[in-house]
Amino acid sequence: MSLKGLNMDSFLELEESIAGKPGGPWVTPSNNTQLSLLAISLAFVCGFFGGMWEGFLPNGFFELVAMAESEGASSLNAQIFGTISGIVLVFAWWVTLSILIKWTPGKSLSNALLGITTAWIIVIAVRGLSHFVLVEADWSVVWANRVLLIVGQQMTEQMTQAPGSESCIAVSNCYGVNQNWRLWWILYPSFAVLASAYGTIAEKPARFLVPFTALCGILMLVAWMPSEINYHSVVPITNLSKALVVGYLAYGASYYYCSISEEYKANRLRSYIAIGAVVTFFFAIMIMDPPEAVKDLAVWLGGTPVQGIREAIIAGDVVPSTLDKLAGDGIQASQWGGLFVNLIVATAGCVLGFGIGIVLAFGRQSDQPFFSVPSIALIELVRSGPLICWLWFAVFLMPDLMDPFYNAEDIIRMLLMFGVFGGCYIAEVLRGGLQAVDSGQKEAAIALGLSPFQTKMQVELPNAVRTTLPSIVSVFIGLWKDTTLLFIINILDFFKLAKDLPATDLRFLGNFLEPLYVTALVFWVFAFYLSRVSMKIEKGLGLTSEGGGEAA
Amino acid sequence: MVFEGSRGSFVGLLPVAHSPRDYLRVYIAPVLGVYLFWLYSNKFLGMSADYLSTMARDITIAGTQMNTSYYPMERLAPIVGGVILLCFLLVQNEIPAFLKGLRRRDPKVFSECVSSIFAIICFVLSYFLLTSVLELSPGAQVPFFFFGGAIVAGVLLLQDNLGEILSWSNIRSFRPRENLGALISVGSIVLFAVLTLNISMIPAISQDIPFFLSAVILITGLYWYWRISQEGMKPAIQAKRTAALAYLALLPFILYLLLRVLYLQHDPNPVMQNRWAVNFDFMDKVNTFKINPWPMEVVANMDARWLFLKAAIINSVRVTLLSIVLCVILGTIVGVTRLSSNKLASTMATVYVEVFRNLPLAVLLFLISTQFGLQAPLFIEETFLFGGAVFFSNQGIWFVTVGSYPVLVMGLVALALLRAGLRHMDRIEPRFIVTPNTLIEHVRRPFSTLGWRVEALTADISLIVAAVVFINYLVPFVSTHGGGTSAVLAMVLLVYALSVTSRVDDDGINSLQIDDSETGLRKRFTIWVAAFSVVAGAVYSIGGLSWPEYIKDRNGDGIIDSPGAWDIAEGTGFEITPFFLAMMLGLTLFTASTVAEIVRGSIQALPRGQVEAAISVGLNPYQRLRLVIMPQALRSMVPLLNNQFMNVWKNSSLAVIVAYSDIFYVVLVMMNNVGKLIPLFLLLLITYQAGSLAISVVMNWYNSRVTSVKI
Q1: How many Cα atoms occupy the beta-carbon half-sphere of B203 within 13 Å?
Q2: Is B93 in contact with A368 (Cβ distance < 8 A)?
Q3: Residue A342 in contact with residue A494, Cβ under 8 Å?
Q4: By the number of CB atoms within 10 A of the CB, which of B578, B588, B640, B685 ranks highest?
Q5: Per-residue pLDDT for A321 more than 90?
């Protein structure tokens, strides 16, 4: 009875916080519980049977399912839609009925009003959204183009026109060589770095392993979904499971190492992991478009470029080895597309931006005008214009300056511009952090005989970064969201490909909204994850403080 | 000289390496660094030399200049020499002391800053030499002169003994063996002069000037890098020598940038020259594409580009201002709701903040405009909401509005006068009265002679009058092509009136005794509600309302036009275009989430004791918010809100996504039309910077008002 009593008490507390204190004179502590149960049962009734008598009361569960099926949704979708809408509807009815039955406006009017307004806003929002997602929308446009959205047009074309693909059944029609192996080669080190980074945090293993497995599971599910599939789902699923195993091993190794060694060794491991992340970034760029030296090395080691033996591969006589694949042509930067471009540009902005930001921050606070004047000028100049302005500069004006010594592709210039832009914002953030470093630290370092460079790198910078890490992460989140601006300069990133799908994919002309919602969801997921990381860092560093917060 | 090393004479000189990491750091990295620097220096100096030679070559045939990239030496020498001089003065860092000494009229400053003065004299001298006396060959002598001069400047900075050399006493007591440094400095200048004049006789140098100069930079740089790492100098001198070393290392890059930009402005390729030449004449010509601005009308193919730019700026400013106002309101509501005790409301507010803070603005804008375009009813479906007050279609939304705007302004003036009157009635004698003495103080408090009671009232009324005058002159400025001067004068008047009222506040004249009790609040509430209703009624009855009028028959001949010609009558109702709506909704929703976080953070940062004390004293929630929480929370909020407002201004550039004619969109199309990229890019940067500065100025003024009481 006590457990049930506990549940009942917390339930009544929840009800009071949402609907307000009971104000009607007929409510006594003894019949409080019964009134709540009455409200709940009435809410269930309204939620299930609403709308069934000529539109009396908003539509309940059964009406909604019937409506959805009449609009053409599959029966499963209609049931799910009905369930979701039904749940929020029952909830809103419960809030309304509690307020009415117990007459809470008598005692806490504002609370009751807030409760009713919010509950019905939730109903409208959730019902509208689930109606769109489950009943109105036809998601096959997204399923059919999922590879395109992730890797861009060139790689999709190479993949779908490679032998073994369903698109070129007659071998004579195939002309492509599948380049997707490059992605898996990028995926393994990325997962390894991510998992080992989490391993250095001394938390319970389940707190990382469960979400990590869930994430891989979702990715495998997305890869497996048979609706409108244009590739062999076995390949990504095997590679994802291999990457999952690599992640487990990396996590286990770094967790074990950190648990048996001292703090300074764990810190050294963390710095190695950070270096590993930067190396993975450059490795990713190199693997997608290997420089001539790497290709020549592979040829010298015995491989034949795949472009040369393409006919043999297509005919099925030769299976290209790793060296053959490495010796072949890569995907030029101008042909990169999809989510990959967004990730690479955002990472470049963060990595390069962090480096440039450190240089500019130290330059700005230097007492030598030769360093401080150009730093201040550059920071103020770059921060005065919106990013879109500078991206446009990078596409049209920067080539005039840069072409004589480095004829770069558009995307490489975008990387540099994002790096400079992120660097100026990080420099501003770091400036505050550097000013907050205790001058005693610097003086002690000088007294110990550290050179100015060593003082900056070993004493001032770690202190400043520790203090301002949440702001730096928020700059990173901003850079990630700003990669959506690449579409204005006609770089085929995720957003541009998604938004042009209704116009370019002839099977799905007119499905405007579905790709946009998927784009919003994908970008939102990454940004939300980064903001959670930032909050965890803040808590871990002890920088948050909770003060008085009860306002009207 | 004998080197005592425990491992032999030469091996003892090499740095010690124990582990592979040390080998990397001590052997491989320096060799790699030197190699890369050699490549970089050669390449950049080579390119710079090419550009400089091309620009200095004077190919005049029959009176016309055949070399399009030609710069006369009168222009080339000051620009290139000026940049080198600027770098020298920056590294030498004597100019601030020089100016301070000049202000104090200290004659010793000349002997202290002799290096900078020497550099300036060298610059002027070389200008005269180059333009009048010497005729340097553009192929070899001109690049050698400028680049060699820059390197000599670097060497002199590193030697850091110009001050000693140029003092009269040292010149007299010069002994070569002891003053090796002075010998090197003077010797480098002499060697440079000799080489420049005779470079054609040394083909080894003149054939490959970048090679020779890179070798000089490398040797000097390596030697001084070693010297600086010995750390045998005072920290100040060490820092200065590091800056000089950085100057020498960056010299190829600086010269390349400068010469490349100069070359591009006179590029033989006319497209490039068009892009880079800074020339604003094309802005006076007629613009060839149309935009949809409001309220100023600009006609394509008739109005100049400057007017189109003005219309675009007005567009950007109005969407920014409206979004700022709305996002502050929405953000405060959501932020305060997040802290409420109603769990449902606070969860909803948290969900709102988390959803919109992590959405990219570009995706949000595109989503809103597409969704609106798909879901809003068609124009011909005649969807009137709220009984004809709102006409809702996918071509725009028309609202009912007041019939006569001047009547509305008069109503607002009446309300402002009511507020001034109420404040006047609440005024009590101040504890101290500051009387103005000097002329400037009299200007800042013009009404001080009227006595304390009337002065504050007059200041308030003057502010109202100034605001009305400003509105009166602002409206023609934003609706017509001219009106700039009178608008600026009216704004100056308004700023003056604002400064008068704040000075009256600061000098303590504005001592109010406000009744903040429950009865007082209720009384004030009723007065204001009554006033609002009276004014609203008066405005409605005098001016009337302007309902959106749907016309199906435009020429009034009784025949209904085809559905494509149906329209809302001009001048009825107030139109909001779908572009403006999408822009405003997107900006507001996106920024409000960040403002909500700022508000919540500021309120949560208050000491808990303040709120508990307010509750224990017996204040109701509204009084708590207004009297205790908000004044303190505003102090920390205002600088953060300043940043957010500047972000709104810069984010308004995303209007190109929804085809709203803002500054960036208009300038982008102009760039595509005329190809004058650099002038338009400069205009863009200047406009955005001016807007950010304006927002900063206003927010800093407000910050000083809010933090005027020291806590």
Answers
A1: 0
A2: yes
A3: yes
A4: B588
A5: no
Alpha carbons within 13 A on the beta-carbon side of A402: 17
Q: Which residues, numbered 80 to 99 in chain A, qualify as contacts with chain B under a Cβ-Cβ cut-off of 8 Å? A: 95
Please give the Cα distance from A120 to A297 (Å, whole number).
66
Mean pLDDT on A484-492: 88
Asked if A1 has any chain B CB less than 8 Å from its own CB, the reply is no
In this structure, are residues B108 and B101 in contact, taking their beta carbons and an 8 Å threshold?
yes
Best B83, B344, B589 residue to mutate vs chain A (most A CBs within 10 Å):
B344
Q: Radius of gyration (Cα) for chain B, nearest Å?
A: 36
Which residue from B150, B119, B122 is spatially nearest to B214, judged by alpha carbons?
B150
Q: Within 13 A of B282's CA, how many CA atoms are on the CB side?
A: 19
Phi/psi at B266 (5° precision): -125, 40
Nearest to A523 by CA among A493, A549, A545: A493
Supply the pLDDT for residue B632.
Answer: 87
Rounded Cα–Cα distance for residues A3 and A5 (Å):
5
Sign of torsion, CA B583 B586 B589 B591? negative
Q: Which residue has the higher pLDDT, A305 or A252?
A: A252
Q: Which SS3 state, helix, strand or coil, does residue B398 take?
A: strand
Note whether A512 contacts B: Cβ–Cβ < 8 A: yes
Which residues of A are less than 8 Å from B603 in CB distance? 549, 551
- What is the spatial distance between Cα B548 and Cα B39, in angstroms, rounded to a whole number? 72
Best B358, B629, B667 member to test A by mutation, with max A CBs in 10 Å, is: B358
Chain B contacts of A397, Cβ < 8 Å?
275, 677-678, 681
Q: pTM of the predicted model, to two decimals?
A: 0.89
- pLDDT tens-place string over residues A206-218: 888 999 999 999 9
Q: Tens digits of per-residue pLDDT, A136-170?
A: 888 888 888 888 898 888 888 888 877 767 777 66
- A381–chain B Cβ distance below 8 A for any pair: yes
- Characterize A11-23 residue by residue with b for buried, 16 or more Cβ atoms within 10 angstroms of its Cβ, and e for exposed: eeeebbbbbbebb
User: How far is residue A145's CA from residue A195's CA, in Å, rounded to a whole number?
Assistant: 29
Cβ separation A381–B685 shorter than 8 A: yes
In angstroms, the CA A530 to CA A237 distance is 26
Residue A548 has a pLDDT of 39
Predicted pLDDT at A155: 85
User: What is the arithmetic mean of pLDDT over A477-497?
Assistant: 91
How far is the C-alpha of B525 from the C-alpha of B487, rounded, in Å? 36
What's the pLDDT at B2?
Answer: 43
Give chain B's residues under pLDDT 70: 1-14, 168-172, 174-178, 710-711
Q: Which residues of B touch A483 (CB under 8 A)?
A: 360
Q: Rounded distance, CA A253 to CA A260, Å?
A: 11
The DSSP result for A243-296, as a single string, is: HHHHHHHHHHHHHHHHHHS-HHHHHHHHHHHHHHHHHHHHHHHHHHS--HHHHH
**Which residue ranges form the domains of chain A, and what is each CATH number?**
2-136 (no CATH), 153-289+330-334 (no CATH), 336-543 (1.10.3720.10)
What residue type is assigned to position A152 of the chain?
G
Report strand pairing: B64-65 vs B574-576.
Answer: unpaired
Q: Which residues contact A21 (CB under 8 A, 6 or more apart)?
A: A104, A107, A108, A111
Tokens of B629: 């929480």
Is residue B65 helix, strand or coil? Answer: strand
Alpha helices in B339-404 (DSSP H): 343-357, 361-375
Across the interface, do B238 and A114 touch by the CB < 8 Å criterion? Answer: no
Question: For residue B7, what pLDDT is reported?
Answer: 52
Min distance A125 CA to chain B CA atoms (Å):
11
Residue type at B658 in one-letter notation: V
Tell me the helices (H) and strands (E) count for chain B, helix number first: 28, 10
Q: Does A53 touch chain B (CB under 8 A)?
A: no
